[in-house]
Amino acid sequence: MDTKSVMIVGVGGQGSLLASRILGNVLLNQGFDVKVSEVHGMSQRGGSVVTYVKYGEKVYSPVIEKGEADIIISFEKLESARWIPYLKKGGHLITSIQKIDPMPVITGNMEYPEDIDEKIKNLGIDIISVDALGLAEQAGTAKASNVVLMGVLSTKMGFDESVWQNALEQCVPSKFLELNKKAFALGVQNA
């Protein structure tokens, strides 16, 4: 099997670490060699963060170069545009519609770009936009938008849902498990 690559991108504090743990757990339980990078970026300052996940028969490095990602999961709209050069031709972009103003927008030096989805679609890219934050709130907590996006991702990867449920049980603290299972199910339904 060829090595596959998934990038998880967003803004610090959005839960990319848990998302990468869930995905890594699923892939390990499917028998793949998996490499997951640390979260890179200004994760504690609300800055851009990225995590690389590579899997296959044998993986030597988690690093994903431009044009190599099979799937990009973006927790924030502008981050989806920022990392698009890393998506391979024919790859999938899964993005939350959430917008978080970066520092140049907050300080008034720039405006938040409009029509990001349309510009990405015009590049011929398969994009799934989901109101992950709204669905997470519907599940019971805004903090589960990352798990909503994992639910959407699960529909693109072809693994049995029981593997994903097992990963949730392994990675999510028990007191938050039911909320996260609801969030995951809402992601699957809205993929």
Q: What does this protein structure show overall?
A:
The protein starts with a strand and ends with a helix. Helix content is 42%, strand content 23%. The chain is built from eight helices and seven strands. The chain has helices at 16-29, 77-83, 103-106, 116-122, 132-139, 145-157, 161-171, 174-189, and strands at 4-11, 33-36, 40-41, 48-56, 69-74, 87-96, 126-130. It is globular. With 191 residues, it is of the alpha/beta class. A hairpin with a 6-residue loop joins strand 3 and strand 4 (48-56). The chain has one domain (4-189): Pyruvate-ferredoxin Oxidoreductase, domain 3, CATH 3.40.920.
Number of helices: 8
Radius of gyration of CA atoms, rounded to a whole number:
16 Å
Count of DSSP strands: 7
Outline type: globular
Question: Short description, anyone?
Answer:
The chain is of the alpha/beta class and 191 residues long. It has a single domain, classed as Pyruvate-ferredoxin Oxidoreductase, domain 3. 42% of the residues lie in helices and 23% in strands.
